[in-house]
Amino acid sequence: MIGASAPLPSLRYLARLSDSNGIVEHAQFDRPRREYGYCTDDAGRLLGLASRLPGDPDAFHLADVALGFLERAHREGAEFRLRQRGNGTWTEDRPSDDAAGRALFGLGTAVARAPWPELRRRALALFDEASVLRSEHLRAAACAALGAAELLRAEPAHAGARRLLSHAATLLGSKGTNETWPWPETRLSYSNALLPEASLSAAIVLGDPHRASSALEQLRWLVERQTFDGHFSFTPVGGSDSASTPPMFDQQPIEAWAMASACARAFAYTWDRRWAEAVQGAAAWFLGDNDVGVAVFDPVTGGGFDGLESDGVNRNEGAESSMAFVGTMLDLHELTLELEATPN
After folding, report:
1. Rounded mean pLDDT of 23-31?
2. Per the omega criterion (within 30 degrees of 0), is the bond before 93 cis?
């Protein structure tokens, strides 16, 4: 089983990328490029990851740093500043629904999973303010839905999270125009498996088996669409459509993490081991079972490389890619524990 030989999830390299302001967005190889600053999306991701790994020696510090960034980035309602420069000043970038969705994802995960009471209290207070988000952007709504679903595990009566989840579920329930392209967009783009995962998560919480079945069918189609020659061959930067054929480059680690997360959720819901195999396949993509046959992570630092290229990898180890590697290994580790505890 791949889980026995895969690296264990660790926050060590993410701590190297972080300082008192937040997690640095970019790196040159494994050196943080603080001059390029920090972003709200990464703070949301980091808060969620650290909350899921409370036993890691860096977990509380990173969760606190990430939550502090989100608190400072928050303006009002569902509006968050997008980026902070390395000198601590904020950029003039317009607020982003995607960033707000990522923030809500991290906040909801912290409320549900973090073991530190004061941090959970702060995360819940900020979630309450930001849960008015009603985005028409699919990925923003999907991230927010996943955060709301997480929070409802700990706070089942939370009315704001339930309203947010219901809105997102309706938006995410859209289908493709024909049977050969059942995707809700004309092109696959970014973090694609996020959409069926959020739809499935909403269906589970809202008790809608028909919607859950539709989400699983959409995810099954995406797995097949992104499988080539026995391994995952992910949608590249720039996206793909019905006329695109694999392999295509550059492939991004965030795709593997989205796929691992979605298939792990599908397995937890169905106990169908084909979903477990898909989680293992997404992790194997990082370990070298991909179109180029090279590892997409640095075994020395524990960081993730910034992309799979036609002739190798982009050896920079930025925040998103490194969190994607750690998150995928965490999904695999949790899955392995579930399989070991389950009779064949």
Report:
1. 98
2. no
Nearest in space to 103 (alpha carbons), one of 54, 47, 52? 47
3-state secondary structure 66-122: HHHHHHHHEEECCEECCEECCCCCECCCCCCHHHHHHHHHHHHHHHHHCCCHHHHHH
CA 101 to chain centre: 11
- 305: three-class secondary structure by DSSP: coil
Helix (H, G, I), strand (E, B) or coil at 18: strand
Structure tokens that stand for 8 in this block: 């264990």
Token couple for 32: 């943080």
The answer to whether 253 touches 321, Cβ cutoff 8 Å, is: yes
Place 175 in a pLDDT band, splitting at 50, 70 and 90: confident
Contacts of 1 (CB under 8 A, 6+ apart): 280, 336, 339
- CA 118 – CA 115 distance, rounded (Å): 9
- Residue 329, sorted as left (phi over 0), alpha (psi -120 to 50) or beta, turns out to be alpha
The amino acid occupying position 210 is H
DSSP string, 54-67: TTSTTHHHHHHHHH
Q: Which sign, positive or negative, has the C-alpha torsion 135, 138, 139, 144?
A: positive
Average pLDDT over residues 222-249: 97
pLDDT for res 173 = 86
How is the chain split among helix, strand and coil, in percent rounded to 5? 55, 10, 35
Mean predicted lDDT score pLDDT of the chain: 96
Element (H, E) at 227: strand 227-228
Provide the CA 91 distance to its chain's centre, in angstroms: 24
Q: How far apart are CA 134 and CA 131, in angstroms?
A: 8
Residue 125 has pLDDT above 90, yes or no: yes
Spatial contact of 203 and 218, defined as CB atoms under 8 Å apart: no
Residue recorded with tokens 């490194």: 322
Contact call for residues 274 and 341 (beta carbons, < 8 A) = no
Residue type, 113: R
